[in-house]
Amino acid sequence: MLPNILSDYLNQVEQAVLMYSNVYVERYEEEILTPNRANIRI
């Protein structure tokens, strides 16, 4: 489960995108290599 702050942010982004028609959205992937490795797929 995502932390609430991240989940809330992603929900806000989704709602903002849904408000507009003819919007181009593409997949974004990033791999962050730190002592606590994280993969981000949006």
Structure description:
The protein has one helix and two strands, in the order αββ. With 42 residues, the chain is of the alpha+beta class. A two-stranded antiparallel sheet has the order 1-2. The radius of gyration is 13 Å and the shape is flat.
A few lines on this structure:
The protein is of the alpha+beta class.
Secondary structure: elements and pairs:
Blueprint: H1 4-18, E1 29-32, E2 38-41
Antiparallel strand pairs: 1-2
Rg (CA only): 13 Å
What is the helix content? Answer: 25-40%
Number of helices in the DSSP assignment: 1
In whole angstroms, how far apart are the ends? 15 Å
Secondary structure class reads alpha+beta
Q: In sequence order, what are the helices and strands, one letter per element? A: HEE
The strand line-up of the biggest sheet is 1-2
- According to DSSP, the number of beta strands is 2
Q: Note the overall shape.
A: flat
Q: Average pLDDT value? A: 78
Low-pLDDT stretches? none
Assess the beta-strand content as a share of residues: 15-25%
Task: Describe the sheet with the most strands.
Answer: 2 strands, antiparallel
